[in-house]
Write a structure and sequence with these properties.
GO terms for molecular function: protein transmembrane transporter activity. This protein has about 190 residues and is mainly alpha-helical. The chain has eight helices and no strands.
Length: about 190
């Protein structure tokens, strides 16, 4: 039979004091300071040394990133444009239900249309840039600008050679400006 003092809390319960409690430490048998378990490195850890040397996303990550960013930014811009269009097209006799329906339809239609266009542009750019890196076996600004030129050209190729050339030039200039802006930011802003 168990000791009745243990069931009541021992001698401390007899004197009116609370029994002392010991916190459970699951790491006590490991002989490792528990603080060392939670001091995690802030730099990324790699399985192979080759991964640590390459400071670049893989082609699949690139594809997902540019396509996703393009679609989401296009959908947000299109929804904003659709909202503005719907609000400006409102007539004085419209009920609240009709106005809400017009806003939802217009924002959804424009968001989907522009989001799909920018998603395709991101897909083309990511594929061309990854192909240029694999082809040239180097990663520099030339790959990005060439991918911008190719993306604009391919995107508007069905509209004719003049339209494709203009779109290619716009794509190359846009990517060139983005690369130059990124270098300026790296140089003058401590990030």
């Amino acid at each position: 039979m168990a000791d009745p003092r243990l069931l009541r809390g021992g001698d401390d319960a007899d004197r009116g004091q609370k029994p002392e409690r010991r916190l459970y430490n699951p790491y006590q048998d490991l002989h490792v300071p528990s603080r060392a378990l939670y001091d995690l490195p802030t730099a990324p850890e790699f399985l192979f040394q080759e991964e640590a040397v390459a400071q670049r996303r893989s082609w699949g990550e690139n594809l997902t990133y540019y396509t996703g960013i393009g679609y989401l930014s296009g959908a947000a811009a299109g929804a904003t444009l659709g909202l503005h269009r719907a609000i400006s097209a409102a007539e004085p006799g419209d009920t609240l239900k009709i106005r809400i329906n017009r806003v939802l339809n217009s924002a959804g239609q424009d968001g989907r249309r522009i989001g799909n266009r920018l998603g395709v542009i991101g897909l083309l750019y990511a594929g061309l840039e990854s192909g240029m890196v694999a082809l040239r076996d180097t990663d520099d600004w030339i790959n990005s600008v060439a991918a911008g030129l190719g993306t604009g050209t391919l995107y508007k190729a069905a509209n004719g050679p003049r339209s494709a050339a203009v779109a290619g030039a716009i794509g190359g200039l846009t990517v060139g400006a983005a690369v130059a802006g990124k270098q300026v930011l790296k140089r003058y802003l401590p990030i």
